[in-house]
Design goal:
The protein is of the alpha/beta class and 433 residues long. The protein folds into two domains: 172 residues, Aspartate Aminotransferase, domain 1 (Alpha-Beta Complex); 250 residues, 3-Layer(aba) Sandwich (Aspartate Aminotransferase, domain 2), CATH 3.40.640. It is 40% helix and 14% strand. It is built from 15 helices and 14 strands. Strand 11 and strand 12 form a beta hairpin. Helix 12 runs parallel beside helix 15. Bound molecules: pyridoxal-5'-phosphate. The site of pyridoxal-5'-phosphate has 14 residues, from helix 4.
Length: 433
């Protein structure tokens, strides 16, 4: 495989874009290479500017649960664009989207659309503070909630990949109101709540953590958070930007049977266009301007192209019962990876919930950020490169999920497992683990 075109674009991009990328996770530094530049994509495949084709398990980092360029989505965007790309005045499609979200997500009675997951979590935190009149926010190490000042404390995703705890540019005065606790450690949450629970505006959590690899919530963890929030009058915010519409029509809250007060959505809800949303209990959401006094706004919020694309995806998800198929494909993928690793004598800890999961290159059981970080990231880098050479595109970081879409075929999965058998053998040779 030749990558001259991507390398040339990357060099040029580095002159005018910091690091050559518009989001740090796209950099391939952690796996010792440079990013691909993509020309086009369809179904489960992406094609780079050099004409190499890959089976894609990144899926734009989660949004593309139906695969690339799904005909219903393409048609929805085209027909919306022909009628104008934005008005800044309400449209029927926004109403239909809101109704669809309320219908699908168990805890959402009212919803507000924004343009990214970051905007959704930022607004939900502001609303929680406005509603409770409190300042403190509890989050979990290795969870990522977008690049919101108050939430960029011991975050996952790109920060985990680059090994940085936080970011310059965030005043201590802002960060001091955020308490970050190990994931799955209910005892630690209880201690903090006993000490300062009446000052806590909200606990925000990824119900399945998917930005430090994929870490599964242990029995009772989410229910315990619900209980503590209720007891101390704090709001429970589920950041379902990845898990929403991914694990079930109603997201992780449906799977685990927990009702958060507020829910943040993103990724799938935009069908590959820039969308986020936050919603929840009517009495809380009614505090948003212009009905209430908590302010949040957006020039392109509820944009007709984005709403049309997102609504097309949600309609397919609601009507076509794709979740069983996604689950069985992802199960096949996970088992195949674990077996290929074992056959090569490489230790991995494989996690999965529904159509997301992760193979951690570690012999420890991964239940939080600390154990996730015990992974051999050099071994992952070898694995990534070997898979790439064989036409499989995985996330260029150990601390990200694989995403199975409805477009992945049995043949795609078998080809991927064949590649994985070779790749794990190379890992064994080069890393001896
Ligand atoms: C991606 C992500 C975000 C941020 O969404 P953006 O659209 O990138 O701003 C927030 N929370 C979680 C859980 C995410 O995975």
């Amino acid at each position: 495989m030749a990558w001259e075109g991507s390398k040339k674009f990357y060099e040029e991009a580095c002159e005018v874009i910091p690091g050559g990328v518009n989001s740090p996770v796209r950099s391939a530094r952690a796996v010792g290479s440079t990013p691909l530049f993509i020309k086009e994509a369809r179904g489960s495949r992406i094609v780079d500017v050099d004409g190499n084709s890959y089976i894609d398990y990144v899926a734009s980092w989660g949004p593309l649960i139906l695969g690339h360029a799904h005909p219903r989505v393409v048609e929805a965007v085209k027909s919306a664009a022909e009628r104008g790309t934005s008005y800044g005045i309400p449209t029927e499609v926004e109403l239909r989207m809101a109704r669809m979200v309320v219908e699908m997500v168990p805890s959402i009675e009212m919803v507000r659309m924004v343009s990214s997951g970051t905007e959704a979590t930022m607004s939900a935190v502001r609303l929680a503070r406005g509603f409770t009149g409190r300042k403190k926010i509890i989050k979990f190490n290795g969870c990522y909630h977008g690049h919101v000042d108050s939430l960029l404390v011991r975050s996952g995703s790109g920060l985990a990949t680059l090994g940085i705890p936080g970011s310059p540019g965030i005043p201590d005065e802002v960060a001091q109101h955020t308490i970050s606790i190990p994931y799955n450690n209910l005892g630690a949450v209880r201690e903090v709540m006993e000490a300062t629970g009446r000052e806590v505006a909200a606990i925000i959590v990824e119900p399945v953590a998917a930005n430090m690899g994929v870490v599964v919530p242990e029995d009772g963890f989410l229910a315990g958070l619900r209980e503590l929030c209720t007891q101390y009058g704090a709001l429970l915010i589920f950041d379902e930007v990845i898990t929403g519409f991914r694990l079930a029509p109603g997201g992780a809250q449906q799977v685990y049977g927990i009702m958060p007060d507020l829910t943040c959505l993103g990724k799938i809800i935009g069908g590959g266009l820039p969308v986020g949303a936050y919603g929840g209990r009517r009495d809380i959401m009614a505090r948003m301007a212009p009905e209430g006094d908590v302010y949040q706004a957006g020039t392109l919020s509820g944009n007709p192209l984005a709403m049309s694309a997102g609504l097309a995806v949600l309609q397919v998800l609601r009507d076509e019962g794709l979740y069983e198929g996604l689950d069985s494909k992802a199960g096949y993928f996970s088992r195949g990876m674990a077996q290929a690793a074992e056959a090569a004598g490489v230790k991995v800890f494989q996690t999965r919930v529904g159509s997301i999961g992760c193979a951690f290159f570690t012999d420890r059981m991964v239940r939080d950020f600390e154990t996730a970080q015990s992974s051999d990231t050099q071994a992952y880098a070898v694995f990534f490169q070997e898979m790439l050479k064989r036409g499989v595109y995985l996330a260029p970081s150990q601390f990200e999920a694989f995403f199975i879409s409805a477009a992945h075929t049995a043949e795609d999965l078998d080809r991927t497992m064949e590649a994985a058998r070779h790749a794990f053998e190379r890992v064994k040779e080069l890393r001896g683990m």
